[in-house]
Structure formats: C-alpha cells, structure tokens
Amino acid sequence: MHSILAYLSRRRRGEQSHEQRLGFLQHITETSHSSVVQHAHRPPSRCSIQGGAASGTHSGFSRTFQPGKLTLGVIAPLEGYPNSASPTLKDHEHPARAIDEAGFATIWLRDVLFYDPSFGDAGQMLDPFVYLGFLAAVTRNIALGTAGIVAPLRDSMHLAKQVASADVLTNGRLLLGLASGDRPAEYPALNIDFDSRASRYQEAFEVVRCLTETDFPRIATQHSGRLDGGLNLLPRASGSRHVMDCDDRHEFR
Fold first, then answer.
1. Nearest C-alpha neighbor of 160 from the set 108, 107, 217, 112
2. Nearest to 186 by CA among 120, 123, 112, 87
3. Are 207 and 161 in contact (CB under 8 A)?
4. pTM of the model
5. Lowest mean pLDDT, pick from 22-26, 55-59, 114-118, 191-195
6. Considering only CA atoms, which of 43, 20, 24, 40 is closest in space to residue 32?
7. Phi/psi class of residue 60: alpha, beta or left (left: φ > 0; alpha: ψ in -120 to 50)?
C-alpha cells in the first residue's frame, strides 16, 4: 500500500529550500526499502520493502506540497471553542465541505486519547481514524492528514490495518503522520512505559510500511507480534509511495 508515512517531531525544523527537502525525502525513500529497525532483545525484522522511489503522483502529497507555492491547510476541530475543553462538533460536516470547496490543501487531525486538564484541550475529540472515514465521505478533493497518530499507544498491527483502511476510504488522499506522544499521563492508562515510546514509535513505522507494502510479510516485533509469511493484510492499495521526515533531526537515536 502506498500511503504517505510521516515522522513528526515536536522539535523546530531548520530552514531548508524546497529542493533540499525533496532531495532529503528522495534519499529517505531510496534508503528505506530494505531498512531494518533493531532494538535490544528483539529479533531483527525480515521484511523487505519493495517498490519504486517517491514521485509526485500521490494526490494528497501533490495537493499539499506544491513546488514554489505556499499551500494552506486547517487543523481540526473546525470550530472555535474558547470557553470549553472540547468542541461541540455541531454540523461540522458543513465547514468540512466548505473548506474542501474553497481549495484548501489539507485537513489535519490530532490524536488525543484522553482529556488532560494540564494540557488544556482534547483536540477534535473524535478518534482520528473514525473521523477520517467520515471526512472521506463528505469531501472530495482535499487531502486528509494526521498530525500525528501517537504510534506507541496503538498496537502496530492494528495500526497498519487502520492506515490501509483509511487510505482506501480516502481514495489516496491520506497523509499519515506518526508521533511519539507528549502526554505522559496517557501511558499508564494503557499499561505502557512512557520511556519505551522511542522503540515503540520506530517499530510502528516499520510495521506499517512492511504490512502495507509487502505481500504475505515476514516480520518479528518486540512490542506486538510476529508474521511468518502465511497472512496478508487487506485492503491493499496501489499508487505512488512517499516517505516523509518532517524534521531533519531525529528526536530518538
């Protein structure tokens, strides 16, 4: 499956020209086809990623990242809520359609599991993958992105299924951003060690790529499970693939 995968970091990105950014994305794509993320006490993955280098034919990518142009997007929720921790979501399909018809590039969704008063808000409140299905039905052209899915809080195999499903429902308009998470209070609720988020994040990236871009993959993981080549993830999708790194300085090494 050829969706857009994005490493999203909270750190500020240095200034780069459009050509430098595209060159870096091309380099990442070419060197990621057979990449293996290895961690202590985990067998190495045996998944070999097949496919060509990044191109500009992905509809969501092309709409959002246009050479020499500034594109504008919006981040959900699509309403103001200055006196509340969460939006009302009343008739929110109407602004979604209006934003699409007005020619905006992208609608971005956040991934916030719980309302934490110390952070002040709960994002668009809805689960981003459920919301992607809704937005896919009420819009036609705008790219739909996640900024970003907190990968360590999700099982990586289920995450791959959610990504593949959203890619099909959006007809290739999905821009997938992955994040490590910045709300420590959420991790104990899922019995996950906050300090394990680096390896979980890296593993989730590899698993999503492997399961969506390889038929009947073979892969072993530390935090999820293993596949021995007898199972295949559905749905499958076709199209161009892009691997994005939205920060040239990795937060985890």
1. 217
2. 112
3. no
4. 0.76
5. 22-26
6. 24
7. alpha
What pLDDT does residue 10 have? Answer: 33
204 closest CA partner among 231, 228, 181:
181
86-107 pLDDT, tens digit per residue, is: 899 989 899 999 999 999 999 9
**Which of 232, 205, 202 has its CA nearest to residue 217?**
232
Helical ranges in the chain per DSSP H = 18-32, 59-64, 93-101, 128-138, 156-169, 186-189, 197-213
Rounded average pLDDT over 165-176: 92
Q: What are phi and psi of 155, to 5 degrees?
A: -65, 130
Pairing of strands 106-109, 143-146: parallel
Question: What is the Cα–Cα distance from 13 to 157, expressed in whole angstroms?
Answer: 30
Given a cut of 60, whether residue 141 has pLDDT beyond it is yes
Q: Helix, strand, or coil here: 177?
A: strand
Q: What is the pLDDT of residues 23-74, one digit of tens each?
A: 434 443 343 333 333 333 344 345 655 443 344 478 888 899 889 999 999 9
Q: What does the alpha-carbon distance between residue 169 and residue 166 come to, in Å, rounded to a whole number?
A: 5
The H or E element containing residue 174 is: strand 174-179
DSSP one-letter string for 136-153 = HHH-SSSEEEES-EEGGG
| 212: nearest Cα among 241, 173, 180 | 241
- Give the pLDDT score at 83: 85
Tell which residue, 81, 106, 132, 114, has the closest CA to residue 181.
Answer: 114
Question: Could you tell me the two tokens for 150?
Answer: 């907190």
Architecture of domain 4-79+90-245 in this structure: Alpha-Beta Barrel (3.20)
